[in-house]
Specification:
Elements lengths: L3 E5 L8 H9 L3 E4 L2 H8 L5 E4 L6 H6 L4 E3 L7 H11 L4 E5 L6 H8 L2 H5 L3 E5 L3 E6 L3 E4 L5 E5 L6 E5 L19 E2 L4 E7 L3 E6 L1
Parallel strand pairs: 1-2, 1-5, 2-3, 3-4, 5-6
Antiparallel strand pairs: 6-7, 7-13, 8-12, 9-11, 9-13, 10-12
Amino acid sequence: MQKKAVILANGSFPTHEIPLNELKSSKYIVCCDGAINKLDDAGFEPYSIVGDLDSLNPEMKWKYRDIIHHFANQDTNDLTKAINWCLENNFSEVVIVGATGQRDDHMIGNVFLLPGFAKKIKVKMLTSYGCFTPILRSKNFDSYTRQQVSIFSPNSETLISTANLRYALTEQKLEMMYQGTLNESMGDSFRIEFDGGPLIIYQEY
């Protein structure tokens, strides 16, 4: 059985309808620690709460005591703990929301967690502006004309080629993180081909 969890991180609560609809339609909302305060205020029911509990207030600890999963290890952040919990509980897909905003350093760290987990589970991150998708192999993406697209290459030796993006790449390395940003789709799809990897693809809504 395929199960999809929506993980709510403790950044800015989603405002766009796409991440909000993921929360509204999910039977399995997994909260990162203090994110339960925002989820509770918004009127959503959590399936589980995962983290080190350092930002969970006593009222929430009592109210949701039966679904709290405490992991005290400080070597990983709460988002990593939540994804690992989903893996251990046989989820096949996770959609992460609320992982950006408030702390810029947390946002960057959360985005670059994605490729490591893409080897184990289908994962993407939705913000209030767009979607980050990690990929391990060449891929076609659904799109629309003039959609803003950025390519991030954690491995600066990866050779990347594109089709149907305004600024084409042909077996090109992105040696600096900014070099693949601010591209644009030319139609209802585009393709990214590469050797090595991984890559992280950002598409605006």
